[in-house]
Amino acid sequence: MSTDGCTHDCSTCSQKCENEIQKSKLNQLSKVDNVIAVISGKGGVGKSLVSSLLAVNFQRLGQNVAIMDADITGPSIPKMFGIASKRADTDGTYIYPVKSKMGLQILSINNLLENETDPVLWRGPVIAGAVSQFWTDAIWNNVGTMIIDMPPGTGDVPLTVFQQLPVKGVVVVTSPQDLVSMVVEKAVNMAKMMNIPILGIVENMSYFECPDNGKKYDIFGKSQAEAVAKKFGIKNVARIPITPDLAKVADKGLIELYEGEWLDEFTKAIEK
Ligand SMILES: Nc1ncnc2c1ncn2[C@@H]1O[C@H](COP(=O)(O)OP(=O)(O)OP(=O)(O)O)[C@@H](O)[C@H]1O
Ligand SMILES: [Mg+2]
After folding, report:
1. Which end of the chain is more exposed for a tag (fewer CB within 10 A), N or C?
2. Chain-centre distance for alpha carbon 272
């Protein structure tokens, strides 16, 4: 049959077609209310950092929070939370996510490898399969919000997550440079094509505030966040400055202790 007008949501479609994708099912011991995916057009713009900050913020708002690290070949969540050396328990049927110091439930491929430095040499479909297994085979204990830290770009993993998991919306992370190029538009357009709402844009490394005189410098160029948000009709925008202390707590595995209000309003707005 024709796939014209396909919403990519087979659960609400009455027409059977050869492209039908089944949603992955959570196991009976898990409960996850909301899933938010954090995406970017290209790598290194601070997706994992923003994923971590959002997760910490949701927990500070009183929620039970989980992070699924869907970046299988370049996982960085465990290090930011200081749990890279912890191994997730498995019992042959289920995987038990690792608990962070403050009680966030975290699952990353790094917590399943024998050594955290072992590279994952899998092809795309196997990687995407691992991510859907994180959803179906892990026990997610009464989670209010799950943040999914995605690999950069628009490859197998984002496609699988958007098609198979009940994603409430995406947060797009960019740098000011990134916003003038077309890569961010690719990420935005992917979400649109998959009918996933865009909850907001976070412009990371947006400026640097000089600690000596409080003056702000646009190191990577003038902020484009508002203009891009307007262009795509995206309501919520936040900006995070280049903050050496932030990189420091992330490197030390102490991201849960971060101080900064850049995402406070944003978190509340996307919680609704
Ligand atoms: N606002 C910031 N201030 C200072 N350092 C930052 C900031 N944002 C990110 N960093 C640092 O930049 C590096 C890259 O960030 P991060 O790992 O979050 O990027 P990413 O988009 O997830 O990368 P990848 O595409 O490889 O997954 C990290 O060391 C992080 O601590
Ligand atoms: Mg990352």
Report:
1. C
2. 18
